[in-house]
Amino acid sequence: MADVIGLLDDNCETVDSSDDRHPVRPSGFCYRYAKFLARFWYVVCLLVFVIVTACGVVTFKVYDLPDFSEPQKGFEARGTVIRSREFSLLHLRDNDLLVPRPSDADVNQGNFSKTSGSLKFRGPRTVDNKPLVPAGQSLSSIDAQSDTMVESSDLEPTSSTGFQFCTSIWNEGQYSVSTMVFEGVDGTNVLTMEAIKSVCEAEKRLVTFHPAYKSNCDCSFQGSGDCPTWSIGNYVALLANKTSCADIEQEDVRRATDLLALCAPIYGNTSKEDLLNPDLRKNLPDECIQHKYAAFAILHYLLPIAFSQNIDGQTALSSPICEVLFPITDSDALETIFKESVEKKSDTDGITRLKAVSFHIKFELFSDLLISDVMYMAISAGAIFLLIWVYTGSLLVAIVAFLNIVFSLVLADFCYTVVFVRPFFPFANIITVILMLGVGADDTFVYMDLWKKTKSEMGDRDIPGLVCETLRHASATMIVTSLTTAAALYATVFSHITALKCFAVFAGTGIIMNLVLTLTLLPAVIVMQHKLATWCCSLKICSQSCLSKGNGCLKTLSQRVKMVYEDLIPFLVLKLRYVWIVLFLLLMTGGAVVVFYYPRFRLPSSAEFQVFVSSHYFEQYDFVYREQFAFSQERFYDARGSVTWGVQALDNGNTWDPDDQGTLLLDDGFKFSSLEDQAWLLNFCQDLRKQAFYRSETQIDCFIEPFVDFMQNPRCKTFGIDLSPCCNQSESTYSPYLFETCMAKFADLSLFYQQVFFRKTDAKLAVIKIDFQTIFPSSYNFAKNDEFWVNVNTWVEDKLESAPKSLQRGWFVGTYGGLLFYDLQQSLATGTRNSMVITLAVASGILLLAMRNLLLTLLSMLTIASAVFVTVASLVLLGWELNIVEATIITLAVGLSVDFTIHYGVAYKLSPSDTRRQRARYSLTTMTPAITLAAFSTFLAGALVLPSTVLFYNRFAIFLMLVMSISWAHGTFFFQSLCMVIGPQGSCGDIPGLSKCGCSKQETGNVQPEQEQTSMHTYDNHVETNVLSDDVDFILGTDQALPPEQNYSMSL
């Protein structure tokens, strides 16, 4: 069999064994590996299949499948200063180490008879069912809240006749009510009779006529089966004493709009809470309070804020949008209604159109859409499979290329779950599938092109030599491109955001696994294919006429394609090289201005977590319409802050697991009792009141001040409790013994609740905390939060520097959600920038080692930097914000931008010529076909996923399309133009200290210079073999090479 293989070429013709076309005999590891592949290809295939199967069984049988029911999980900063302090404060409120009163400690559990029995329970002590000293508020505020709760029932609209609501709109909060937003078609007014009735019909068609609504609405318990919505039509019916919005007339609408024109200026910015004020209510006109404030309900809940603001008394009242609120909260029923009705039925009747929905099931629906959108990945995979099949001419190679991608994901999952023991698998990891489709196809195209080119030059008599020569060229580029892409991902491991780190490890490992399989399984299968084709020919199973079927058409198409990459592209690069250089330098400069100066990447402006594309109903409501309605606008109160001593501000949980938030760590070195400690803390609280950021009309929860007041109080009995000797003291500081004794006594009375904490084991004072209110608003605005954090934290840290040693380890943190969002914004900005810098540095090192030429490396890095700037600038101009999804994607900008430039650069370096022009031409003609197909396949992978509803899929698809187009253009035109103008010639720029890798070494032995020169310059005497002109069997992929043809390149 071996003799037959050695004497036959792919066209089943006998080869003269005396024709030694390639007398060079390689040696070293690369050749030994190639020889093993050529001889034991079946061992390699079997070994790969066994390993992948074993890893897959372990991963999917032993470990649980990922759960995507909480998509927002993991998308928060971990290990940062602010997050660590927030976690420590959270643990302080709920832990098993501390108690708020010494009497609750284990050491005192048997001594309750010495104190009042009311101290047996945890929480503030009460007298007559009211807190003795309420935590953070006064008794009057609690009474006011109680009154508010009672009086809110007075706002429910009732009517003895006509329309009836079955429940009250006033009890609905913005995070529980189900909402739809309707818009007049072409922006027309929705306050017309036709539009109001259109909305009424739409709510019936889409929601209220659905069986799930009738059986699960909040009114279903009444047995009537009628659950009217809170809509403008129903309120107009209420005001007109009609039974249904279908019965209203034009005059009813006119009277309702007149009422709104009267009441809107009066209500102004009045909130529901303000309306509960009796002083405000008694000054309102009777028309504005009829039907229990129906006009306010319409203005507050159903019409946008701009409607009231635009009333000038001269122009007719109009509004382009309105809301409808539904009395249903059952999430399962709402999900059924959305899937079966809202998504499937028409959103317009020609008068009004449904624009946004808020059913509060976004995250519940996400898991389903995440899986259903995999359909687009499947279509993308099928298209790339067909592209590989057509381009390579081999079904077998296409199957193996696809298996490479699947096996890479299986091995990556095994390493991620079993080897690296990562406990959390975010949904962001699924995007690796799209990435692997592009990368896997790229490597297959490059390897197959080099295999065909090498075989056309060397023949196929020496299979080990053929495999070795192919691997020598392919590994040089594949290793570099894979390592740089993996490095771009692994650099993100330093991010503070859990989901980003997990994605980096999983995707980076997938890239490495794909490289390993491309250099093992793919060559082994190609050798198998070659031997099958030779065996087929030796048995006369296939004939020359069969192999030549359709060859004429393929040759014609091949010649047209080859004219592009052998004639047209080199001609454009050479003749317009200075134009390309100037053009791309201008693009790079413009990109840098956009990225670093203006408009730059904007930080996320909303704390809402977006999971679907912006056009989705849910995201339209959250990001476009929510803030347009008064009832859903958050009322931000002033930001509060806390200074804490006795707790270590450390995030000691597993930062790779969002469910592991760590435990409370006490500062064992903290002790507060000395005179110096007391004096300093008292002075700290007094200075705090003088600061510009402190809201002067509020109280500071600083226990040391009331402690001194109680100590100086001449009355030694309170509520029948003897406070001696903790009373009638004249000083403001006390001996450690007296301080500890009185602190325990006062704390047992819950006088400093949530301000001091004691160890549960020995009842010793362990933690003290001071709370205060600032003038800064609690919001999600980055600039405001930055001002708050920098001002307050800087002042606290400066004060702590002068504190006694035991108090110097205190720390400050804001106690509101906006600060955590600010922390996330900071992490995204710094993490993304740091990851890109690290990636560029690593890529530079890898390029230098691969090319071993300083000048070529500099030109490559200039090209890559330009491609990155232009790519990121394009995303900025598309309006992207630097949110978590975008940050995850942008970290790949460097890794994916290097691939094509590296392929061209390595080919330039390996060129047998010495002149710039010939080297650049060799690089272009050798690599352009494979690189172009690789770029097109990855572009296609993104384009086919573009219709996805899931934001991550959609954003990544856009990114892939951009980065492939931009990096291909930069590599082909900018890099090659630079090489033609200032590229290295001969050994110029070579670094002699860097030796070649094993697969780049070749011992030539006693080879005549003429023979070697002839072999290396074959590319000038014939065109590379393209699969489209091969004699192809689409089942076996016989991989025949055409005889050399004359080079028809135009004279340059």
From TrEMBL:
Transmembrane domains' residue ranges: 40-63, 427-450, 470-491, 503-526, 578-598, 854-878, 884-906, 927-946, 952-975
Membrane topology: Multi-pass membrane protein
Keyword Membrane: yes
Domain named SSD: residues: 397-528
SUPFAM superfamilies found in the cross-reference section: Multidrug efflux transporter AcrB transmembrane domain (SSF82866)
Claim: ATP-binding is one of the keywords in the record: no
Pfam families from the UniProt entry: Sterol-sensing
Listed PROSITE patterns: SSD (PS50156)
GO terms (BP aspect): smoothened signaling pathway
Location(s), subcellular: Membrane
Molecular function per GO: transmembrane transporter activity
Predominant location category: membrane
InterPro entries given in the database record: Dispatched_Hh_regulator, HMGCR/SNAP/NPC1-like_SSD, SSD
One GO CC term on file: membrane
Keywords: Glycoprotein, Membrane, Transmembrane, Transmembrane helix
Classification via PANTHER family: PROTEIN DISPATCHED, PROTEIN DISPATCHED-RELATED
Family per similarity comment: Belongs to the dispatched family.
The protein's name: SSD domain-containing protein
Organism field: Patiria miniata
